[in-house]
Design goal:
This protein is mainly alpha-helical and about 220 residues long. The protein has three domains: about 80 residues, no CATH class; about 40 residues, no CATH class; about 80 residues. It is about 60% helix and about 0% strand. The chain has ten helices and two strands; from the N terminus they run αααββααααααα. Strands 1-2 form a two-stranded antiparallel sheet. The chain is globular, with a radius of gyration of 19 Å. The N and C termini lie far apart (about 50 Å). About 10% of the residues have low confidence.
Amino acid sequence: MVEFKDKIVDIDREIEKRRHKWQLKAVAWMDFDDVAQELKIHLHKQWHLWDQSRAFLPWLNTVITNQIRNKLRNLYMNIARPCVSCAANEGEDRCRIYAKQCSACPLYKHWEKTKKRAYDVKLPVSIENHLLETSAMTSTDEEIETKAATLHERMRETLSPIQYKVYKLLYIDGKTEGEVAEAMGYKSSEKHRNVGYRQVHNMKKVILEKAKKIVLNEFY
């Protein structure tokens, strides 16, 4: 009988493959490490459903893929770009039909007019508390913009200049972690890692913790 712990290396590897496909810009407050931990907990609970007479990896990848899709659909797809679930999405803002994910696409254009404003100012809070912390929000668009401006100003006052530059690039300018690493001049000596990934990732954790404290103190 193969146990969960016997396959943890395979599980970690298959989950890690999704990191660079993860639509961070669609759910900017969601840290992929949180997602990875939730996936492993789910796999552990569902371990008995794996028919061990069959190959492991196909079952594993099906479970991981379905869980990520469910998370996006159930929690965040109400404001996410339509590109997230589009078959033409090639990642990193690339589109198989229009080359770039932009308003040339009718679905994207409609999203820009109806949901982009809310998408742009969504606040970075953790997965486990997101529904609780936002369930009572009934702000108008004007109120949301005011709160977002307040958050950005508080972050500028709280963070170091370098941290705020990373914050601005990630959460105001909408850059990917790879783009931020390049803009900051970070390098990486690790194999199979994007340039400067770890530096940006570690700083992002600090930024999100401080942002969460500000949000709770200022708006709740």
